[in-house]
Design a protein that fits this description.
The protein is mainly α and 227 residues long. It has a domain of 38 residues. Helix 4 packs antiparallel against helix 5.
């Protein structure tokens, strides 16, 4: 009789193994989609820099006005008094009680909680109760909030990780769709298609703007001469 007896896995252990495999597949897919999203953002940023160098400089007056608007809005925000409601204070205390960095000794977890607490503090300063509720809900649903050891507890953690991965995949898909609907992405696509036909669409746009600027300048000079 074989002395090496292979222990049969319990149903819980078999289920945990399946979920670990499912999580690994989801994480691989998530990594690929994160890469695609990062690449798209990088390409758009590069195109935006080129656009600003060629076209943006011709809108300097608009930039000046927008800067004044931003300055005025900042002044209004600075003049507001901070008066947190009792409900806002309660939410803040509830969130801080669960995720405060001082509650853990692991350095990596401590740094992660510090970043999250920065979001909490900003939401509190903004008086954003909805944001605080969202942070609290995500934390209570996170794998990190599950305490204890053992197969059953680990299974709960993995299930929550799977849920988080699926949520992030959905968020990436939504962000990709949103980016592809932006004017900047549409313009980038038009410029790329024009380049295939040997056209420089940005330079054509710049020339049209230069003509409008020149005509406006001529009109201004004409008015000055009449006066």
């Amino acid at each position: 009789m074989d002395k090496d007896i292979v222990r049969r896995l319990t149903p819980e252990e078999e289920e945990l193994g399946k979920k670990h495999s499912e999580l690994a597949n989801l994480e691989a897919e998530l990594t690929q989609r994160e890469l695609e999203l990062a690449t798209l953002h990088a390409e758009l940023h590069a195109f935006e820099r080129k656009y600003q160098q060629i076209i943006g400089i011709r809108f300097s007056e608009l930039d000046r006005i927008e800067a004044q608007i931003t300055e005025y809005m900042a002044y209004l925000e600075a003049s507001k008094e901070f008066k947190p409601s009792d409900n806002l204070k309660r939410l803040y205390r509830e969130v801080a009680k669960q995720i405060h960095p001082d509650l853990v000794t692991n350095e990596a977890e401590r740094l992660r909680r510090q970043e999250l607490m920065a979001e909490v503090n900003q939401a509190y300063e903004d008086g954003d109760e909805e944001k605080l509720r969202s942070i609290l809900h995500k934390w209570e649903s996170s794998p990190e909030s599950v305490k204890g050891e053992g197969i059953a507890v680990e299974l709960i953690r993995v299930l929550r990780q799977i849920s988080q991965s699926r949520d992030r995949l959905r968020a990436i898909e939504e962000e990709l769709n949103e980016v592809q609907q932006t004017e900047l992405y549409q313009l980038k696509t038009q410029v790329a298609n024009a380049e295939k036909l040997g056209q420089d669409l940005l330079q054509e746009m710049a020339m049209e703007l230069d003509l409008k600027i020149a005509h406006a300048q001529q009109k201004l000079e004409g008015l000055k001469a009449r006066l």
